[in-house]
Write a structure and sequence with these properties.
- With about 190 residues, the chain is α/β, with parallel strands linked by helices.
- The protein has a single domain (about 5-40, about 55-60, about 80-180), classed as P-loop containing nucleotide triphosphate hydrolases (Rossmann fold).
- Helices cover about 40% and strands about 30% of the residues.
- The protein contains eight helices and ten strands.
- Strands 1, 2, 3, 4, 5, 6, 7, 8, 9 and 10 form a ten-stranded mixed β-sheet that branches.
- α1 (about 15-30) crosses α8 (about 170-180).
- The longest helix is centred in the middle third of the chain and has 18 residues, at about 80-100.
């Protein structure tokens, strides 16, 4: 089984998603097809009200979680929108496994792992013989040792407030490496 990829972790708000999105865009410029999900936060008047779930290939969007939403699955004050997670998230990951050069997931965290079908899709994506670009929750090793054990085979970068600028200057290097490993470009 091939375990090649980049896994990004760090504290909330440190810039993990910025680095992920920068690398995804650079991979696309190199000719790579990146599929999977991202989960950007949604703010209204400066207050976080929830998180979207976005298909990286089609830009289809739904809600991952909303504040105070009644759901059988909750993380803190956020209720998981199960139908959207299955319709957008699970399908995006299944499609990435089948059709993408590189599987991207931002993030593998408590909300994404609450819905069993999504957790299974993520495990399948991690086990498939494709290059990965991931963001994972900093407590994943403690919260989900099974998934962490797979991720631990990848190159892991911990983003901090002190090193994030340096990591951002290296994103094109990471993108070239991932593209060569995936066989979707000459690597520039």
């Amino acid at each position: 089984m091939r375990h090649i990829g980049l896994a990004i972790t760090g504290r909330p708000g440190v810039g993990k998603s910025t680095i992920f999105n920068t690398i995804v865009n650079q991979l696309r410029e190199l000719g790579c097809k990146v599929g999977g999900i991202s989960a950007p936060e949604v703010r209204i008047s400066g207050k976080r009200v929830g998180f979207l779930i976005v298909d990286l290939s089609t830009d289809a969007r739904g809600w991952l979680a909303k504040a105070s939403y009644q759901s059988p699955y909750k993380v803190g004050r956020y209720g998981i929108i199960v139908d959207d997670v299955k319709r957008i998230g699970v399908n995006a990951i299944i499609s990435a496994i089948k059709f993408s050069d590189i599987i991207g997931i931002d993030e593998i965290g408590p909300m994404e792992l609450k819905v069993p079908e999504m957790r299974n899709a993520i495990i399948n994506a991690l086990k498939v013989n494709k290059v990965k670009l991931l963001v994972f929750h900093r407590e994943l090793q403690r919260r989900d040792p099974e998934i962490y054990s797979i991720i631990s085979n990848l190159k892991i970068i911990e983003v901090t407030f002190d090193n994030r600028r340096e990591i951002l200057t290296r994103t094109s290097e990471y993108a070239r490496w991932l593209s060569v490993e995936a066989g979707c470009s000459g690597g520039g």
